[in-house]
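Troubleshooting: if your tokenizer reports a length mismatch, compare your output against this known-good record of 365 residues.
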Amino acid sequence: MVLLLANYPLIASAQTLTAHAFEGAEVLFRQNPEWLGTDGANSTPLGNGRIFWSFEDTFIATSEKHSREHSTMVRNSVAIQVGNDPLTAKMSFRWGQDADGSPASFFPDDGETWYWTGGAILLDEGPLISFLYRIKTTPGVGLGFANSGYALAIIKNPDQPPSSWKPVIINAKQSAFDAVPATAVVRDGKHIIGLALKQEGTHAGALVRYLAASLALGDLDNPQWWAGPNLGWVEEQDIGSAGPAFVIDDAGAESSLHWDQRTQSFIHIATYGFGAATIGMRTAPALTGPWSDPVMIYRPPESDGPRPFVYGAIAHPELEGPDPGDLIVTYATNSFEFEDMFTEHGRKNLYWPRVIAFRVGKQPK
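Known-good structure output:
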């Protein structure tokens, strides 16, 4: 992969960017009767048809009734998918366990803070790494939680089942500016580049990079930040409180970023709007931009329902769609009334990853 391309990429024509529901793929998330739904859903190819998934707040059954009424919510869970076709693939889920046997977060809570998962990547240097957001409660303020920094989880034996994993978690030092890694990560030569999000106000996106060899060892101490075309990549201690350049003006609270061979461009997927949201796509010839304005590709039907709470659109380019040119995207459905999760409609339709597909270009030769 190269960071800069000579020409701006060509994308599919506007009429081909209308996404459609891919409901058959949602059976992927209904394969374990104890795993009863989640919102955030990130995926990372591991090779040989294996895909690592990480999820945020997850309902886990606590009785043989296998119902949300008899469940607990853990802060994160993971899964391994075998097979790239979601219609036929097998998914095995994993979460943690407290000393008394009750369900717990896979990436264990850290005192009064907990971890939500961000971008992950399998390093050529060996381990699987996953960025984690440190979260704390803020009773009566906003949505009741706030970011408290970030961390890195290192899984040294990703070729083994998650039951044998013992993640090493390294908490990062807080930056002097408002940009937190990493909702998505991309390899660029010897570096791993992450999309870091502004937490206050609109979630603008900045770029941070680390040596892959350093991340493999859990070293987060010397990142470089993109400071714009005049300054280029700058050491964090030299950025100052003004912070780095923001290459995407609204990158969403969660989003994905990947290189797409079909369009010869980077693609960024996010939801736009709060509550009643729409899914949009941006493209760029380079991670550093210029990024296009978002093209709205799908209006989730849940956005037009009662008390809509739609968010977390993320692309999964390793998944196969109905058409070879399709890009698969998941998004989260929720409600501002927690009780809605336990109604007949909510148990079936809310707080499960929803899946859509849209054609971004022709199948690469």
